[in-house]
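Try this one yourself first.
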């Protein structure tokens, strides 16, 4: 489920910045587990990483990251193209 939130990222919220929820990441980024990117602080609650489109070539910025499905099979058929950049 998605919801619109006010951007509370302030001067932070870029790729690799720590976060507690999606409103703390810049638009186009998702607050993921810090293990999603080598550039993330492993001690942070979360880490801002980009959303991606599984039907497009991966443009993930992190070292070793790949565009991976956000939803599992049969969870959201209308959003099967939605991915998030993370380590495999």
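Now uncover the answer:
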């Amino acid at each position: 489920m998605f919801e619109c939130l006010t951007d509370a990222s302030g001067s932070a919220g870029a790729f690799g910045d720590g976060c507690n929820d999606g409103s703390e990441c810049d638009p186009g980024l998702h607050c993921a587990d810090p293990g999603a990117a080598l550039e993330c602080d492993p001690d942070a609650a979360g880490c801002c990483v980009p959303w991606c489109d599984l039907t497009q070539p991966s443009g993930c910025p992190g070292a070793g990251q790949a565009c991976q499905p956000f939803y599992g099979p049969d969870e959201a058929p209308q959003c099967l193209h939605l991915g998030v950049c993370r380590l495999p």
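Discussion: The two ends are 23 Å apart (CA to CA). The chain has a mean pLDDT of 89.
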